[in-house]
Amino acid sequence: MIERTNPFANLGEMPAFERKPKPVRLADGEAIDVIAEESGFVSRQPTKVARAPKRKPRLHRTGRNENFTLKVTKETRERYHKMADERGVLLARLLELALDALEQTQN
User: Fold this and answer.
1) Domains within the chain, CATH numbers bracketed
2) DSSP letter string over 12-81?
3) CA distance 71 to 1
4) Angle CA(12)–CA(17)–CA(22) in degrees, nearest 5?
5) How far apart are the C-alpha atoms of 68 and 38, rounded to whole Å?
6) Under a CB-based contact definition with an 8 Å cutoff, are residues 60 and 89 in contact?
7) What is the pLDDT of residues 22-43, one digit of tens each?
8) pTM to 2 decimals?
């Protein structure tokens, strides 16, 4: 019977591994920030922009099942939502009222 050769036979002893020494810190982060501010350096971190408060979702079961999507400016969208909130109607109902009023002015 043929014996297999041991691939690890000629390795000898396992090498001893040592930990790397910790790098020496010259200054802490707070001291660096103070020195940078005194020297007039500005931060590279982006400034956080406050987001507008989110509206609560408008979920109503009305039987309207057709999608009607428009591209509008942010101001127009806010104006439209404000008008619907002031009147206490759904967005689709506000559109219906606006179309009715437009038809009446044209007749």
Assistant:
1) 70-107 (1.10.1220)
2) -SPPPP-PPPPPPPSS-HHHHHHHHHHHTPPP-SPPPPPPPPPPPP-----S----------HHHHHHHH
3) 82
4) 170
5) 57
6) no
7) 887 777 778 888 888 888 887 7
8) 0.43
CA distance 91 to 97: 10
Place of tokens 């500005």: 42
Cα 90 from Cα 98, distance rounded (Å): 12
Q: Distance between the two ends of the chain, CA-based, in angstroms?
A: 107
Nearest to 83 by CA among 95, 73, 72: 95
- What's the token pair of residue 60? 């109503």
User: Rounded distance, CA 107 to CA 96, Å?
Assistant: 17
